[in-house]
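Lab notebook page, bench 4
Experiment: in silico fold of construct C2
Operator: M.H.
Input chain length: 315 residues
Purpose: comparison with the prior construct
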Amino acid sequence: MTISAAGDVEEGQYAVFTVSVSTAISSDLTINYSVAQTGNYIADRSLGDQTVTVRGGRDSATLRFLTLENTVHEADGSVTVTVQAASNYIVGTPSAATVAIANDDPLPMVRVVYATPQGVDPNPVYMKAVEQAIQDVQIWYAEQLDGWTFDVQSPIPEHCTLGNTEDYYDRDGGYHRVIEDLQHCVPIWYETPAYVWAVYPDVGFICGASDLGKGGYGITILHRDDLEGLANPEGYESCGYYRPHMGWIGGLAHELGHALGLPHPPGCDEGLEDVCDYDAVMMLGFTKYPNAHFTEADIAFLMESPFIHKRLEVN
């Protein structure tokens, strides 16, 4: 009794094996075998000890395992079938066969979108500033994470046209309205495994009335004041507060951190001044960017993130 594999597969395809006897048999023969895998590509019910019957008059039986398909990038895997011994047949060589399973999902990426409402023409100065900002933040993350950082999908930025005029997005509720109105253009949604989103809608920010300018659950939505800050080397004032140009890039580093799952440092939201690390980029340190830092807890969290997989050479 031997076993062979038909060939390697990609996730979502069948892994096929053939159990063979040396000559055709006259009556049904039950064969014992076991199934093991690396990764998570085969349903649990198909693993472990199993049986298959070679029908009388035949010399083989086929085993088919549908590999699981998803949208999450993960390491390649394999499934191995091993023929087990029994009293009514002899196990020959090879007694085991393996099918390699290739993951077909892309590595998780950061996607950057510049979105213009109806009546607003795309601003190439803003678009170039956004491109430069995300590249700067990508390098800064690598400096903080011993060379590891996120990757960004091209083009940078992607441009989308929103379905409504600016006043539909510039007040409370605009955050979710931007996300909803981007659906026709990009597959943006909360906590998607393949993408984290940084969105710059070319929409004004009404101080105290707008809910733009925040991040979390895989998405950050900024606003036109951020675009002005990125585009102006001398910096920009928003809601009565001046922030230098690099501080606006630091704002992206901060909000992208929230989109990746980072909270404010411990004690900060509670106002515990003796506990809060105000100089951390996830607190007020972003205004001093690049002279800011991740906390040790931030670094530990990000080094486990599937989005931190690109290696850069940094000083």
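Observations: The helical segments are 124-144, 174-181, 224-231, 245-259, 296-303. The radius of gyration is 27 Å.
Next step: discuss at group meeting.
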